[in-house]
Amino acid sequence: MKRDIELIIRLLAVIEERPAEDSGLELYLDDVDDEHVQYNLGLMKEAGLIKAIDATSSDGIQYLPIRLTWTGHDFLDSARSETVLSKAKEVASKQGLELMKLPIDIVKNVLTKVTLELLV
Fold first, then answer.
1. Please, where are the H alpha helices in 1-120?
2. H-helix or E-strand containing 65?
3. Could you tell me the CA-to-CA distances from 4 to 8, 37, 40, 43, 59 in Å, in that order?
4. pLDDT: is 21 or 66 the higher one?
5. What confidence score (pLDDT) does residue 32 get?
6. Among 17, 28, 46, 52, which is most buried by a count of CB atoms within 10 Å?
């Protein structure tokens, strides 16, 4: 199974928009295989982007997202800006790299750096 940064950004946005009463409930996306969603939710929990309940059982991996963490909000705020995301992809591309295939900490750092450069 592969980590999918674009899916992670999308999942963060979905979790952010969920009402409080949906906290801790399953999350499905119509156009993405549930196993892929669950795998990436697990990675998001490990990376400290979300708080989630690990409901993994013999039936398979399952994470029930509760909320974004502070880090998750920061990451989403940077990544959802098309200006910042495009510039970050350009910066990585100039180095022969694909932003969405880099480690999450590097992606966060590049997004933060680009945001700071745009502000100064």
1. 5-17, 34-46, 70-79, 82-94, 104-119
2. strand 63-68
3. 6, 9, 7, 10, 23
4. 66
5. 95
6. 52
